[in-house]
Amino acid sequence: MNDFVSDVDVVVIGAGQAGLSSAYHLGRAGLEHVVLDHAPRPGGAWQFRWPSLTYGKVHGMYALPGMELVGADPQRPSSEVIGEYFAAYEERFGLRVRRPVDVTAVREGDAGRLLVESTAGSWSTRAVINATGTWDRPFWPRYPGQETFRGRQLHTANYPGPEEFAGARVIVVGGGASGVQHLLEIAGVAAETTWVTRRPPVFRDGSFGEAEGRAAVALVDERVRRGLPPQSVVSVTGLPLNEAVRAGLASGVLDRLPVFDRITPSGVAWDDGRRVDADVILWATGFRAAIDHLAPLHLREPGGGIRVDGTRAVRDPRVHLVGYGPSASTIGANRAGGAAARELRRLLAPSAPAGARA
Q: What is the CA radius of gyration of the chain?
């Protein structure tokens, strides 16, 4: 790590949708800031999505504030389309994202400031907006016998697209949107697919309007206000019953089994005697918030999450979490970025502004 320390009003950690939205609003609020991003290039977590996830398959990509995404080819990979859009956005608004930079810790600094430590040096800051999302923390459940499996195990975070599963017997674990997308793709090339989930999947038929969206976000918000780890918004909205899903249900591809009790060298097994042999187990089991670097501030509640009021961490008003819990959707991240900037402008107003942007 470099040993210099720069002063700044706000450090934004992460340059995905939440981080870029926050930086845009901080600029409009007149707050000097720096954006640190660990990824090698613009695009947030989108740059790591599998090639078969084309832009036309993306659910509700919402434009960043001040610049629409127009004319995108729905057949192009979403990683390319959104990566180029984010890059153009950074250039248009002069966001000057520093990358690749890994933030290793945020801790108490001097004179009421926070100290952000990273692989590119340290920043003494009056506030932090954490916009690190979840992609870097894939969740791998543990089951008895998991280490004995002789086949391949991988997570959605490493999903390469359907071609690598040609002729294989594949078990997909997880009842979310990614699991369904993987199954529908893999079934066309695999020798056999099996779908297992902890709970029966809930499919949503019909429209999903603003009222339904507000209700779903409110359920997620209630958890984080209680200091519990956030659930994804999609976990309370259900799975959209579109044409592809209807076809998968009709063909039996989306015929779900309850999750197995143990993993064997050749597959999985249930206590009732059922067994399924497999060459691959694909864990579409979601992600957790990437917030370990905030640990020195002791923000977690006994329930395991960080309790927030809006975007503000209840235990430390200098820390805002954008893209966490109810603001994890693209439209939610946009709104939360603006809300965090407005609240920080009020919080920091009594003090003299920091020096030039780092």
A: 22
In three-state secondary structure terms, 186 is helix
**Among candidates 30, 44, 31, which has minimal Cα distance to 97?**
44
* Mean pLDDT computed over 217-245: 73
- Beta bridge pairs of residue 239: 203
Please report where in the chains the tokens 């993987």 appear, as a residue: 182
Cα distance between residue 222 and residue 211, in whole Å: 17
CA 322 – CA 344 distance, rounded (Å): 13
Contacts of residue 40, defined as CB under 8 A and 6 or more positions apart, other chains included, come to 47, 99, 100
State the Cα–Cα distance between residues 183 and 197, nearest whole angstrom. 13
What is the reported pTM? 0.86
Read off the tokens for 344: 């920080």
Sequence-ordered list of residues with C-beta below 8 angstroms from that of 28, at least 6 positions apart, any chain: 341
Angle at 320 between CA 22 and CA 28, to 5 degrees: 30
The dihedral formed by the CA atoms of 313, 345, 335 and 120, expressed in degrees to the nearest 10: -70
Q: What is the DSSP string of 88-112?
A: HHHHHTT---B-S--EEEEEE-STT
Q: Are 323 and 133 in contact (CB under 8 A)?
A: yes
Residue 281 backbone class (left: φ over 0; alpha: ψ -120 to 50; beta: rest): beta
Give Cβ neighbours of residue 246 (< 8 Å, ≥ 6 apart): none
Instruction: Give residue-wise pLDDT tens across range 160-212.
Output: 999 999 999 999 999 988 999 999 999 999 999 999 999 998 887 765 555 55
Structure tokens at 234: 């999609």
In angstroms, what CA-CA distances link 338 with 1, 233, 261?
A: 32, 20, 45
d(CA 79, CA 45): 9
> CA dist 3 to 6, 119, 120, 219, 317, Å?
10, 10, 9, 44, 27
